[in-house]
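Question (not urgent): is this output format expected?
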Amino acid sequence: MSTAFIFPGQGAQVVGMGKDFYETYEVSREVFDQASELLNLDMKHICFEENEEINITEYTQAALLTTSIAMLRVLEQKGIKPDVCAGLSLGEYCAMVASEVMSFEDAVKTVRERGILMQEAVPLGVGAMCAVIGLDNDVIQEVCDGIEGVSVANFNCPGQTVISGKKEAVEEAADKLKESGAKRCMMLNVSGPFHSSMLKEAGEKLYDVLQDVELNEKFTIPYVTNVTAEYVTDTKNIKELLRDQVSSSVRWQQCVERMLENGVDTFVEIGPGKTLAGFMKRIKKDVTMINIQSVGDIDQAVEQLLHK
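Got this back:
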């Protein structure tokens, strides 16, 4: 019996996220207050109150990481530890904090920089992303390989894939994918062509930022990286993987399949929304899926996890 903590990425953010944790648990309060101090931002305002910043990449990433870690700290305080961690895109930084390979302080400062670099990488309107529903990954890959300037950004789950790149190339690929049998191709309301080669330079700049980050060589809980969908058990290539992650495909489906192969039978999604639980239904139905997104979820989750 094996448990994975999994963390959502950008797009899961919602106004009010983490507010009940802040009001209920001192350990959660400390996380929000620390993030505000480290980044010189009012994290409570960004996460709890109606505002525009929450959906702007340079703020979203730090806000989501802060919220997920505020929730994680409560589980840790109650004696719940995972056997492995993973996160979708930005969520990988939450996984690294949960695995204790990166401190929360370094993670929140790094994702703030990451958000700014990704936001600034491509002028607004030049790039685009599109969700492709109901088509085999191999077909999608083949179509993208035949059009310059577009690639697969996310392998989320069977029947749901995201493509990214230059706006015209993405639109051309979407038309071809519909011709190839896609049920739907939906252009996404995002501020950039994330996880495409257009963000390679942002990845290089992030790599420079990461040189000042200290990684814990003695971490004992592995995490699964988006780039290769393999377990990471030492710090050797972590900074290179985080650099590459900005512009390469997020292999989420493959990450989950890797954990399943390794005997994981319980997945705990920590953070706002149930995006990853939705993907899980399409990847493998007969696993235990637990969601932590409000204070009301904690007691039942703890009970379930302690008596596995």
